[in-house]
Specification:
Bound molecules: zinc ion
Number of helices: 22
Strand order of the largest sheet: 1-2
CATH superfamily of the largest domain: 3'5'-cyclic nucleotide phosphodiesterase, catalytic domain
Distance between the termini: 42 Å
Strand content: under 5%
Order of helices and strands: HHHHHHHHHHHHHHHHHHEEHHHH
Helix content: 55-70%
Low-confidence stretches: 1-11, 43-71, 81-132, 174-190
Mean pLDDT: 78
CATH topology of the largest domain: Catalytic domain of cyclic nucleotide phosphodiesterase 4b2b
Length: 480
Amino acid sequence: MSSSSSSTENGSVDRIISDFRADFNGDSDPLTHMYEFSRRSLLRRDGFVPSFNCSRRASIDSGTLGIPDVIRQVAEDLKKENESVSSFIKEWIDSSDDPHGIILESSPLTSMSPISSSSNPRSSLSGGTPKTSILLTTLIDWDNDFLAFTGTELITRSIKIFDSWGFFDSSLVLLPELTQESLALSSPPQSVAPLVKQKDKFHAFIKSVSKNYRASNPYHNLHHAHSVLAIVGNMLRNCTPNWFSQLEEFAILTAAICHDVGHRGLNSDYYIKTKHELAIQYNDLSVLENMHCSLSFDLMLRGSNNFSSDWPEDQFSIFRKIFIQSVLSTDMKQHFELTSKLGEIASNTNGGCVIPNLLNAEEKKTVFTSIVHAADLANPTMSTKACYDWAFRVVEEMYAQGKLEEKRGYLVAPFMKHPPTQVNEFAKLQISFVGYIVSPLWKAMAAIWPAALSDKIEQIDKNSKFWEEMRDRSESMMHL
Ligand SMILES: [Zn+2]
């Protein structure tokens, strides 16, 4: 398990505390800093833009208040300002059970228990850590050897991710109303209908989607789709816990497993240059991504797969919109614009923290589409062996397309002319891909979520060195 996974799977309070530790550099008064930081964190969870109230900040007497008191005061202040943020207060009050001074202790973040926190929102409702927590943590572990799983295992694991998320079982779900109720302590939790009542149909849908991934594709197969699902799940849990509604998370995760469905091992340019019916149908615009969306909904709306047949119209409409936005964002032609927008968000720091404005629909879209797109480009963040294996498969698939194009008399793109066994070309291609495409995106991601993702940048650098050494070795061999 990576260090980011273990330090962030615990409750949201621990998450904010760990972020605070990462953010606090000792240059300012710790209590004032904590006040501002926790206030921003609370607001961010409910999608509100923070506006700093200097007079309230000045009212804190750092000589008499302990850290839990500051947290409580923040919670009280926010409760007065906006009702919706009170859903989070219970967690803060729970956190005051921790020994005073925990926030400023110098112990390493990794000393925190990943799943035992009493402030875990789910455990506060169900009376203990959900049985699925450890399972989900394992399923979405960044360090899973995704290529080692069999097709059956991939389907089972995909279904288990959705099962253990709580989409089909309301006892696993944190809802603001329930948190509000639990504050009163006198009212038992209300029963709430699960988001998806037709669980069996959703399972059937996932099986249909899985069957529509071609096992013969070296790269765009179910292994890749499942790895994107797991990495997206990891980031939703560790980077954006409770930033999105349950329906939004469901749409993003469903989009992740569907994002390459029906892929035939050929890119959009192939369909455009061959005037294929898909290119004609989608007017050369995001040909593959449009096809993935269209096929997904075609499979979804078939009777035995139609888990949404009992949904209200607006619920389906929100799901469909977020799903489509997520899948279309995986078009590499959107990459630079998306990276640029994410970079703008990342550069907008306040007191060392980046706080995306989730009330702004465009900014919110940038956040969740970046998560899906980055997961789609996550291979260089994985172990060097996994990174190499995935890269080999990408180049193998591209080379096969090049051979097909050559056979059919089309002009072949230079990067499709070399098999991965041509080591020098292989290494140089990876160095360019990581340097110009992958690294800027992931650096923007890590700037927004440093506690969860900074180790991914270290891994990208480590893998880049591997490719450079491979290139240098092959060049020295060539000069012998
Ligand atoms: Zn993909």
